[in-house]
Design goal:
By secondary structure, this protein is an alpha/beta fold. Helices cover 36% and strands 16% of the residues. It is built from 13 helices and 13 strands. Strands 4, 5, 6, 7, 8, 9, 10, 11 and 12 form a nine-stranded mixed beta sheet that branches. Strands 3-2-1-13 form a four-stranded antiparallel beta sheet. The longest helix is centred in the N-terminal third of the chain and has 21 residues. It starts with a strand and ends with a strand.
Length: 392
């Protein structure tokens, strides 16, 4: 089997939508094709990922798609900047690699989890993610500082036993606390307001459900520690991106000052990026995104590496249903899986229309796709509303 061409898509929609998923379809001379995704779908980076995929794709054309390790190493070593551990470069490698695993599993006529070692569990526990933006199909009212209250009620009513919120995202008037993810220091008055929001969520969900604390890396170390200590009495499952994810030493200082497990990973790439966090013991949960960490090939290595440090895994998922399906397969096969992220964006009707199969959780649990491959591909709608380039 040989790769004959690679189609690169940047999805668009028939109405305004802030997500711009970048997808590739790897085609072969045996008629088997595979889908993968570069998960730089929101804010900035999608167009860069689209062009990077087009530039790197020729390195894979003509090769055997079943030799995913050979192709991964060729692209990683040949690209020069790819070895710099950047989001755009690794996002492109991730998309191609994911598509190769889709082909590999389709060629074997097996669901992907079989090739990853088999299911460790029949379904996945799920949490409702980013409730500060609301919840459900119309969760887009990001200027309402109190949107989290009805959102939390809605998530509990749908059967979720775990929720995640960023309690420092909004000022009292609903405006964002920052505009560009720069590190900031919040005063005690504001942190007390954030704690009051947390207390309200705990009141709504009761004592037997879990809360995940999200900071998006915008707090400096002193504020992250102070807020973390305020949150300790509320029985937090883990504390995500307490500080910026580029500095293992800062993360270690927070871990030493707060009695809550720390999590990070959606902006950490490759096993080399994760290694210092394992070595200093700062993270107890990692959150690699299969669409930017290096794909399934690298993602599995990262997760297995985490297991040797007793670190749990929750993949980051905030893009199209392509990446979500791949993540379900990997998490099903991991011994050290902890919980799956269901971001509100995955429930949005426009996002759901882009692919053929609409996998959604039921009662806070996700079933694992059983179709050959990753079990997902673009729909006619997704193909229609997309910029496309074909590399031969």
């Amino acid at each position: 089997m040989k790769i004959t061409s690679i189609d690169v898509f940047m999805l668009k929609y028939d109405q305004p939508f802030y997500l711009r998923p970048v997808i590739c379809r790897v085609n072969t001379d045996e008629g088997i094709y595979g889908y993968g995704e570069s998960a730089l779908a929101f804010t900035f980076g999608a167009s860069a990922a689209f062009h990077m995929l087009a530039e790197l794709a020729p390195l894979a054309v003509g090769m055997d798609p079943l030799e995913n390790e050979v192709i991964w190493e060729k692209i990683f070593r040949t690209g020069f900047w790819t070895a710099g551990n950047g989001a755009v470069e690794m996002g492109a490698i991730s998309a191609i690699d994911m598509a190769l695993w889709d082909i590999k599993a389709k060629a074997a006529n097996l669901p992907l989890y079989k090739l990853l070692g088999g299911k460790q569990r029949e379904n996945l526990r799920v949490y409702a993610s980013q409730l500060q933006f609301g919840w459900g199909e119309k969760a887009d009212n990001i200027k309402d500082a109190n949107a989290y209250i009805p959102a939390t009620h809605a998530a509990v009513a749908e059967g979720y036993d775990c929720v995640k919120l960023n309690f420092i995202r909004h000022h009292a008037d609903g405006s964002w606390t920052h505009k560009n993810d720069t590190t900031v220091h919040f005063d005690r008055k504001f942190l007390k307001l954030a704690e009051q929001r947390l207390a309200k969520v705990r009141e709504i969900i009761g004592p037997d459900r879990d809360i995940i604390l999200e900071n998006h890396g915008i707090t400096d170390v002193p504020a992250a520690v102070e807020f973390g200590k305020m949150c300790e009495p509320y029985n937090i499952l883990f504390y995500e991106e307490a500080v910026m994810p580029l500095d293992p030493d800062h993360m270690r200082r927070v871990a030493e000052g707060v009695n809550i497990p720390l999590a990070s990973g959606e902006r950490i790439y490759t096993r080399w990026g994760f290694r210092p966090f394992f070595e200093n013991g700062s993270l107890k949960v990692i959150q690699p995104d299969l669409g930017n960490c290096g794909g399934i090939t690298e993602g599995k290595k990262i997760c297995d590496m985490a297991a040797t440090y007793d670190v749990s895994v929750q993949t980051h998922v905030c893009s199209s249903p392509i990446c979500k399906a791949a993540s379900l397969h990997l998490e099903a096969a991991l011994h050290n899986f902890i919980i799956h992220e269901h971001h509100g964006i995955n429930s949005h009707p426009l996002n759901r229309k882009t692919c053929q199969y609409d996998y959604q959780p039921e009662n806070g649990r996700y079933a694992i796709p059983e179709l050959p491959g990753i079990g997902q591909e673009l729909s006619e709608y997704g193909l229609r509303y997309a910029d496309k380039v074909t590399i031969k």
